Amino acid sequence: MKNLSRRSFIAGTGAAAVMAGLLTACGKTQGSADAPTAEGSAKSIYVLTPSEDHGWTGSVATFAKAKIADVNATATYKAELQTADSAAKQISELEDILAGNKEHIAGIVIQPMDDTVQSAIQSVVDANIPYVAFDRIIDAVAPAAVSNVKGDNAGIGAGCASYFVAHGLKPKDKVYVFEGDTSSVTTLRNQGFVDYLCGKLAFDGAKIDESLKWTEDDLASITYSGAMNWSRSDTKTAFESLMGDAANTDIKWFYAEDDELAMGIIEALEGGGIADSSKESFLAHKPYITGCGGLDELYEILRGNTHREMLAQLGGLMSVTYSPSMIQLAIQDLVDHLDNKTVVQDHVITCQNVTADNVAEFESFK
């Protein structure tokens, strides 16, 4: 099984801990935290993510807890997870952390709920506390981060466009994009899609054939849904409404910017919210649907274990890798920085297309 976004945590040895204490007595490297000097005095690493509920964002917290356990096992730092169900709650968490004894804060890893968290992150920067941003990168504070860890969001768009072109997409063909939200994630996934079509961006080392390149005028045939808030149910409702107009049943190419959104389309097609005549007309065109993330439920379809009849009626179904386990790399980046190791600030994780042909090679999440 490929694990595209994990690497092993190398624990510090007892000798290294002693050496760290000696180095602390002499001074520390600028921008890094002091190492603990005695048992129980380990500085704290705070990891802030959305609530551990369900789907991709919920799984981020699950993977974070596993990595935090590894960090705590070394006793070099004391790591803890804090989750929030809103940006306001996450801002409050940051304020509470900063209100305590800043000398005991080693660093912060945060997946911002949205851009409104910017001012709170700026407070972290102003307090000279190292921080790592994960997934949702806020441009205004990104240069101050130790590392900005994210999947290749532009690559996701390019991967979906590449898949469509490989299966017959032509300039001016109707394409419908189900967007995630209004963050930089969606902006990059949109841009990567059109940049591939226009020949500005490669995927898997190759650009679109010159004869198939789209012009700026051709891009007018792409329709954007607006923010689906990464919600399966919102996408299901939106797709049912879309298919309520018979003029839309000839759309063949659906780029859903998350596996949850792709599942919303599939559930709508299998539910009772679309007239049978509209479903028949739509499926007669053998439509293609792409998602991204690695949701086990969608991978189960690709494995041929569920929704077999629906899969047979589609032209194709595909998901681009974007694993929530990348949070573990974000935590490791902070630990490496605190241990005076070199960390790449713009840490982008390469993505790959997952189809029924290669799904057995990839790990999914629930």
Major beta-sheet overview: 6 strands, parallel
How many individual β-strands? 12
**Overall structural domain count:** 2
Q: What oligomerization state is this entry in?
A: single chain
The CATH superfamily of the largest domain appears as Response regulator
Helix content: 25-40%
Uncertain parts: 1-39
Task: Give the strand content.
Answer: 15-25%
CATH class of the largest domain, named Alpha Beta
Order of helices and strands: HEHEHEHEEHEHEHEHHEHHEHEE
Number of helices: 12
Q: Which secondary-structure class do the elements indicate? A: alpha/beta
Strand order of the largest sheet: 2-1-3-4-5-11
Q: What is the alpha-carbon Rg in Å?
A: 23 Å
> Termini separation (Å)?
16 Å
Please tell me what the overall shape is: elongated
Quick description:
With 366 residues, this protein is an alpha/beta fold. 39% of the residues lie in helices and 17% in strands.
Report on this structure.
The protein is of the alpha/beta class and 366 residues long. It folds into two domains: 14-145 and 324-349, Rossmann fold; 153-322, Response regulator (Rossmann fold, 3-Layer(aba) Sandwich), CATH 3.40.50. The protein has twelve helices and twelve strands. The strands form two sheets. The protein has a six-stranded parallel β-sheet with strand order 2-1-3-4-5-11, sandwiched between helices. Helix 4 links the parallel strand 3 (105-110) and strand 4 (131-134). The protein is elongated and about 65 Å long. The two termini are 16 Å apart. Mean pLDDT is 90; it is low at 1-39.
